[in-house]
Amino acid sequence: MPRSLWNGTIAFGMVRVPVKLYSATESKAVRFRERHATDGAAIEHRRVCVEEGREVPYGETVKGFEVSSGSYVTLSKEEIATADGPGARMIEIEHFAGREEIDPVYYDRAYNLGPGKLGDESYLLLHAALKRSERVGIGRFVFHNKAHLVALRALEDVIALHTMRFADELVPVGDLEIPAPQRKPSKLEVAAAGSLVEQLSASFQPEDYEDTYRAALLELIERKARGETIDAPKPVVIAPEDDLLGALQASLERQGGRRPSRAKAKKTKKAPRAQASKPARSAR
Amino acid sequence: MAKPLWTGSLSFGLVNVPVVLFSATRDRDIHFQLLHAPDCSPIETRRVCATEERPVPWPEIARGYELENGEWVLLSDEDLRAAAPRQSRTIDIERFVEVGEIDPVYFDHSYLLVPPDEGAARAYSLLSETMGDSGRAALGRFVLRAKERLVCIRVRDGALTLTTMLFGDEVRSTEEIAEGIEGAAPTREQVDSAVAVIEELGVEFDPTLYRDEHRAHLKRIIKRKQQGKKIAVPVAAAIAEPQVTSAPDLMGALEESLARIRRATKKPKKAAPRARSHARSR
């Protein structure tokens, strides 16, 4: 069993459910460390006092909030933790909402919850109720001195917790200056683009997608380790399309009514990782 | 406007849509500076070469990959691009799916896609108009910061919004946790009551209902400290042990929850007494 990251309690009405938090994800990206380009030596991060120019042990440091340029209010770890409040170990479910009402832009990290000490029955009850109602619980969660909006939902046989952004953490789309086209797309163009979307439509099967870059990168590392020189990639030139309709029609012809074949084949076959896509189906 | 995080193009069939990428989220956290306690002067983190014992400027930092024999291979930004030149510059749309079909566990970070100039605006608006009508999201992939990202792109408030996703093998199985759960399954009556509580608290998701009060609280603490006031730190013993509703008490707790919520909604002027912790102890 992986180690839990946090222990706490979910308040569901008057029912208290003790829970343990586990990470639901693990990155499979190729990991790098910082090295000195000229001699390949390790790079060390050192805390240096700007005034004295010498290295400072962590025990001699304190956290400061800059109230005006160069002027700090210092706070101890305990003082910062008082912001967590008395409910720090409690996630109170404030509302229940429909999962499809939450735009993906709100989601941050995913975790799974397991029952805490003496909590198996209340955990099973909350799980069963979330599953049957097809709703997600919305609450707040303080973790590492930061509050997160969270969504709690039934995922397979466990309760999953998603940290979410607060509304003011999103960039208002209106802040972006999106240039308007001089000439709007024609009806013909929109219709052709719509047909292309139709042709490429499939159901989402997570096992259809594999990280191909990981393998390409590891291969390149191997070549470099053997002393091969790596040619610089040719610059990719992207020219804005003038003949949109022509490009769309050519795409439609190339696609030639062939549907995304793999997705279709997967539907009938029982895929080994089919469990990964189960939540999508059960929530519908 | 902020600096774009990536510049490239969206490829939809044979149509290329030039785009630049911005983060869809902004950092509202309160950040602290590490200070040297005796004189409150700022502390800087310096990168130092371990063999030469000298500070190293950023351009001299390379990405190192450790081989099994303990040797290191150094990679430049160009090497990273060379591993997948096209994916480093193009987001290839492979399929279109319903957003609701994607389990939220796959979602990672969100970005906004914007055409870099007027010349690209027509192709951009064609794609956003088409997708806005179909109610679908485009699935594609590209390489951002030395990692391939599966992405879903959809229209939100008139802008193409891109959300990076995890690959299937990056999502952990829930089986191990599920196997560790013991205890009796809830009775039908208990689930009925629990669902009734959920229905009573049901709303349409409205993110503006929730403010980050923790952040506001931290700001007040900083202000008090600035005014020279003392911050009372609770002693560990005074922090109440979290309570547990044990199996025999579940039904009672559910009934009481329903009664309270219904009382609170009948008299909307009176706020729900949710601050009082009245849980049954084990």
Please, could you describe this protein's structure?
The complex is a heterodimer of chains A (284) and B (282). Chain A is extended. Mean pLDDT of chain A is 87; it is low at 261-284. With 284 residues, chain A is of the alpha+beta class. Chain A has 7 helices and 11 strands. Chain A has a domain at 6-26 and 83-169: Ku70, Chain: A, Domain 2. Chain A has a 7-stranded mixed barrel with strand order 1-2-8-11-10-9-7. A two-stranded antiparallel sheet of chain A has the order 5-6. In chain A, helix 3 (187-200) runs parallel beside helix 5 (244-255). By secondary structure, chain B is of the alpha+beta class. Among the domains of chain B are: 6-25 and 81-169, Beta Barrel (Ku70, Chain: A, Domain 2); 187-200 and 248-272, no CATH class. In chain B, the strands form 3 sheets. A 7-stranded mixed beta barrel of chain B has the order 1-2-8-11-10-9-7. Chain B has a two-stranded antiparallel sheet with strand order 3-4. A two-stranded antiparallel sheet of chain B has the order 5-6. The model of chain B is unreliable at 269-282 (pLDDT under 50). Classes of the chains: A alpha+beta (284), B alpha+beta (282). Chains A and B meet through strand 1, strand 2, strand 3, strand 4 and strand 5 of A and strand 1, strand 2, strand 3, strand 4 and strand 5 of B.
Q: What characteristic shape of chain A results from the CA principal axes?
A: extended
* CATH architectural arrangement of the domain at 6-25 and 81-169 in chain B: Beta Barrel
Radius of gyration of chain B: 27 Å
Report the largest inter-chain contact: A-B, 197 and 191 residues
The CATH architecture classification of the domain at 6-26 and 83-169 in chain A is: Beta Barrel
End-to-end Cα distance of chain A = 31 Å
On the 0 to 100 scale, the average pLDDT of chain A is 87
- Spatial sequence of strands, sheet with the most strands of chain A: 1-2-8-11-10-9-7
Overall shape of chain B: it is extended
CATH class of the domain at 6-26 and 83-169 in chain A reads Mainly Beta
User: Given the helix and strand composition of chain A, which structural class is it?
Assistant: alpha+beta
What strand order characterises the main sheet of chain B?
A: 1-2-8-11-10-9-7
